[in-house]
Write a structure and sequence with these properties.
Length: 124
């Protein structure tokens, strides 16, 4: 199982330092040193995106960060209070869900990362 070429091209074009690892039927994409907005104490984190079997027809959902992220007021961000272990590492799960219909062939890792950035920009 490999990352789709358009997704890999997107990550490279953005200059992300990333790795891809197979985890069962999923691919895990880890973007190292993913920048966070000023609303958070941390300046950057590793960002995990889980790519399910069936992608790109299957939608991407939720994202994970490591280390633990806190808001500038030292509170846990909304719906980010669960920790999970993936690949032997602790990750903070952000239970944020794609609300628009997923458009296979149009939506992909690029539009998903844009939605992650939009969610993080809310600072909640």
């Amino acid at each position: 199982m490999r990352l789709l070429e358009p997704d890999e091209e997107y990550l490279r074009a953005k200059g992300y330092d990333f790795e891809v690892c197979a985890q069962g039927a999923e691919l895990h994409v880890i973007i190292h040193r993913f920048p966070l907005p000023d609303a958070y104490l941390e300046r950057s984190v590793d960002l995990l995106v889980r790519i399910p079997a069936g992608y790109p027809n299957a939608r991407l959902d939720m994202f994970w960060t490591s280390p633990q992220v806190l808001l500038a007021n030292r509170q846990t961000p909304r719906t980010a209070n669960v920790n999970e272990v993936h690949g032997g590492r602790n990750w903070q799960r952000w239970s944020r869900h794609w609300t628009s219909p997923w458009r296979p062939g149009t939506d992909g890792l690029d539009t998903f990362i844009a939605s992650v950035r939009n969610e993080l920009a809310k600072g909640i």
